[in-house]
Amino acid sequence: MAGDGYKVDLSALDNVIKKLNGIIGDLGKTGQDTKHKTVLPAGALGLGSCDAPFQEADDLSTAHDDMKKYLESVVYHLEEVMDDFGAKTKRAHGAYQDAEADTASAVHGTSSSSSAPASGTSGSMSGV
Description:
mainly alpha, 128 residues, 69% helix, rod-shaped
């Protein structure tokens, strides 16, 4: 594959990382909102008791608590996935930068008469 020559647009990877950071920030806010701003105080829907004028209030409150826990777990999972994807994207970006630097060093380290053909066949990963 090195003889085919290919390019990786490092600025596109930079944009992916920036967008991921924005999403991760938004998810952090969403996670905090889910934990702290999604509140249904006891008795807000009515009181369910033995003489129970509104027995469904307990069922609704329980359903709310269950849904809140589920949403918290979904947001947490999304945060983990985005963090993992972001870390992998950053590592790939760094690896391509390193490969580009190595290729540039190899090209500049050769004689000037062979620099043009070497860059075309070396698999250079320029940042475009």
